[in-house]
Amino acid sequence: MVPARRSTRGRLGERARRKSSGLNTPDGAIVDVRVERLVLDADDAKEEEAFEVVRATATRKTTKTEDECDDDGILCLKTEDECDDDGILCLCVPGNPGVAEYYSNFARALSEALLKEEEQQQNENKVRRRSVTVECVGFLGHYADGSLTSAKTRRWFTLEEQKAHVLKYVRSRVEEENACFLVGHSIGAHVAMHAVKEMREEDVKKMVGLMPFLHVNERSNVQKFLAWLVSQRVVVRVVAKVLGFMQKFKALKKTIERSATRGMKCELGISVTKRWAREMSLVNMALMGDTEFKFLRDWKRNVVDVLKAHAKKICFVYAKEDHWGPLHQRDELMEEIGLEELEIVTDESYEHAFVLDDESSKKLAEQCARMLLN
């Protein structure tokens, strides 16, 4: 079990707890959406191994009931027979950097989209769920909130450790909710596929990989350079130290923030990036990336076997001109697998960093909802 550690640390989490939105559905019912940031502890976890989770809950109000509040004073809009509701649980795995807060708007949009998609299908399956919960679990050490990482902790985490971390969380949630859907973005698609492979068949209903990073792209000069750069661990540590030193000076810190957020239009992305850009954040991103490049050189070990075993429940979304999930790998994958059951959608309007654009997050959330529930 994963008991919650109540936390309001981090400005985004506090704002998210106060936000809710109403959405009209075809039958006139109202969908209430709550987004909250949680810090959860596993029973045997060390402090630096806590689960940082962004949770979005969309609830259909079919009847008016008395508003109630939970222990934190957060407004909860209850629905009739809510306790008997077999809701939808969807767990999201981020890319690298694996900061859960980046996916707050996407989680909100996906919870709404899943509820609307289920609404459209209710006449066919005669089942009407009243709630959808979408949770994004962040990677170890990839925290926007610096207070989650002890100043004495200089540890970074490998891809294998992140896979074990996410799998542990997925298992704990499945124990509570019976089954779940999975969504993985970039390297998160690889991590989600690992969860599909390790979980029981009935535990994961379906999985969607968004712009999946499943194999090193040998045709990409960018990846070749990045793979070399992050393999220079001394260089990574020195650059990170310089970053940490510069942030002690207000003017230099602002310069770093402007550089890191240049070109961003999403307020969420700017806010999270400013808080995330720290010494150990850079170390975790780069050195985890090093383990990614080294592990993902074996194409068949990482992809083909899992897809052949679970092709009917795994879907992918590819974008145009994305070196992390290039179209030639999509084509090679289809040729290697040779299975018609594998659903792949390609849309050149999608961008790899979709979480930094609210409109892109909403559009991709709607695509995910269709693929997960169809």
Describe the structure.
- The chain has two domains: 4-217 and 298-373, Alpha/Beta hydrolase fold, catalytic domain (Rossmann fold), CATH 3.40.50; 222-289, no CATH class.
- The longest helix has 22 residues, at 104-125.
- The strands form two sheets. Strands 1, 2, 3, 4, 7, 8, 9, 10, 11 and 12 form a ten-stranded mixed beta sheet that branches.
- Helix 2 runs parallel beside helix 12 (358-373) and helix 3 crosses helix 4.
- It starts with a strand and ends with a helix.
- The protein is of the alpha/beta class and 374 residues long.
- The chain is built from twelve helices and twelve strands.
- Helices cover 44% and strands 18% of the residues.
Count of the domains: 2
Helix content: 40-55%
Low-confidence stretches: 1-29, 63-84
Strand content: 15-25%
User: If helices are DSSP runs of H or I spanning 4 or more residues, what is the number of helices?
Assistant: 12
Q: What is the N-to-C succession of helices and strands?
A: EHEEEEEEHEHEHEHHHHHHEHEH
Structural class: alpha/beta
What is the arithmetic mean of pLDDT? Answer: 81
What is the CATH C-level name of the largest domain?
Answer: Alpha Beta
As for the CATH topology of the largest domain, it is Rossmann fold
For the record, give the distance between the C-alpha atoms at the N and C termini, rounded to a whole number. 31 Å
Can you identify the CATH superfamily of the largest domain? Alpha/Beta hydrolase fold, catalytic domain
Q: How many DSSP E strands? A: 12
Radius of gyration from the CA trace?
20 Å
GO molecular function: lipase activity
Region (Disordered): 1-26
Subcellular location: Lipid droplet
Family: Belongs to the AB hydrolase superfamily. LDAH family.
